[in-house]
Amino acid sequence: MRIDVLETPALLIDLDVMERNLRRAADYAKAHGLRLRPHTKTHKTPALAGRQLALGAVGLTVAKVGEAEVMAQADPPELLVAYPVLGESKLRRLAGVARTARVTVALDSLLAARGLSEMAAAEAVEFGVLAELDAGFGRAGVQSATELAGLVREIAKLPRLRFEGIAFYPGHIQSTGEGGEAAIARITAALDEALDHLQQQGMPAAIVSGGSTPTLYQSHLIPRMNEIRPGTYIFNDRNTVETGACAIADCAASILATVVSTARPGQVLVDGGSKTFSSDRCGRGGFGYVLDAPDAVFTNLNEEHGYLDVRAAGRTISLGDRLRIIPNHVCTAVNLHATMYGIRGETVECEWDVAARGKLQ
Amino acid sequence: MRIDVLETPALLIDLDVMERNLRRAADYAKAHGLRLRPHTKTHKTPALAGRQLALGAVGLTVAKVGEAEVMAQADPPELLVAYPVLGESKLRRLAGVARTARVTVALDSLLAARGLSEMAAAEAVEFGVLAELDAGFGRAGVQSATELAGLVREIAKLPRLRFEGIAFYPGHIQSTGEGGEAAIARITAALDEALDHLQQQGMPAAIVSGGSTPTLYQSHLIPRMNEIRPGTYIFNDRNTVETGACAIADCAASILATVVSTARPGQVLVDGGSKTFSSDRCGRGGFGYVLDAPDAVFTNLNEEHGYLDVRAAGRTISLGDRLRIIPNHVCTAVNLHATMYGIRGETVECEWDVAARGKLQ
After folding, report:
1. What pLDDT, in 10s, does the model give residues B57-78?
2. Which among A46, A174, A291, B272 is least surrounded, fewest beta carbons within 10 Å?
3. A272 vs B360: CB contact, 8 Å cut-off?
4. Topology adopted by domain A15-234
5. A114–chain B Cβ distance below 8 A for any pair
6. ipTM greater than 0.95, yes or no?
7. CATH of domain B16-235
8. Is A39 on the interface with B (CB under 8 A)?
9. Coil, strand or helix at B126
């Protein structure tokens, strides 16, 4: 099947680029002795999780129980839910997953740990636990080495939980706009303090799990981190380009859209807006990068309309033309599509159901 | 079933508020002799479209062929696709819908009209057409009364198309921040010119279709508009409140979320972010209105995390607490959920599949 016959908007995955992205990260992790446990939030597709495992990933990461249920289909040796699971109903479903897979949960509260332990006892399963430390991003995670040790001490007492190590999220390296070195030094110092303290208390952390896509290839600069869980790297996106972590040529995912109106001079409308691309922003402005007309500016979007300012596009764009556009944030864009099409050149080689789309619970 | 047992995040619809919203718009349309053809993009659910029809709506509006296929289940007397349909495959699917429903398409180009006419001939159906005029919003629509008459003249020549009238979108009344009166006067003048010109050319427009939720109850101030197609009014949202068109008490949709982390002082995280609320903005800032703690500020979101600044919340918010939050933009939020729960008080009275979720094509 050729791309021409696809109805638009359609989410295209350039297989050559994707495979290069997957291999590069796998090689890097191997070269530096890092456990790679990719976050599947980006592709949401068991077949692609399977490719990550085949290339040496030690397991998979998800955020939600519903994603864990889907990703269990890829038969991962280890499944990390990098999100606290609260509430009996979800915990029971997670216990169901734990019957067939080795499940670990990252959490930052005793309440979450107790809930896990109680459900593990009720359902006769076991859960691994990573205690989450806020290494400066300001989202989840306990705030100090002392708090971390306090939490780990309590986790260690709870039945049917395996304390496996710590997790953190280094998202602030890019979000503060720092050049990386200073942020890496601060994270390294925070980890040293936390890990030494745990060690001194007789509770050493076997796993030190961090790593996001923007910082992926700097991971070896944080000596005690031994696991990375990037997600976006499989496809990359305009925001990844913005952080300097990849080039446009490394973006595997694009959205094929059709020009549906040229009635207003200097502007064309394409048949995808916030329902297709998501309304996630990008530091450099705009809502996507038009591969087929890089000087067109994706200035605005409504639910079903994407607005391109084509005054400086340097080419004619006509009604009915089909344009490929790289989204700002590929994870939220993928979540809006029921299907992804794997392409090479102009040929559609395969298609995948986005099986974990909209798994909110 | 009580709300307590729902897994979060969950999309709740307050049935009393929704029914009041539906009835108010239906009564208004009736009182002013306006055809009400609600846009179903907000609820995406045939059962709710059915309620709109039962209250007197003359038909339904959709944006996509896939939505038309879903909404045909509600058996609308008239189905308006308020979006040009380009491409053989989609046109063929739309012809399938036209076999059982009276289908009209709004468009602003001869290319779109020709495609419709050719498919109508091939599939032995007929389509209605509304010619779209840009009445100042700057999105789709031809730019002048002369262009409009030129387009209508060509439409009238094409086999198997019924020219039914004109469509426009008055979204700029709120988007320019004007008080309304000046914008209404300009729209009225643009319509007068366009409609008089069509009349003089012997091509009178029977339907003059406009109307969005923010301007809903000003519709009678635009004398020649005889059809309105608001969508958001069924639920309303924080952006509708922002325009002054409703109060918080008129917002029927909220998202029930659980507090999953309180590790960072002054901040709590809830289990919904851009994948749950969408990242659509609101003029007054923030990503939602916390019904249970109106002075908490929804400052930021990532895919799965909503950040509430609770320093001024005036109440204690604890780990595991469940909070109801009104989204900025309910249409994009609904599109992210597979299920909506209709509630009265603390009771879940019904649930609906969001059948037209993610119908991008």
Report:
1. 999 999 999 999 999 999 999 9
2. A291
3. yes
4. TIM Barrel (3.20.20)
5. no
6. yes
7. 3.20.20.10
8. no
9. coil
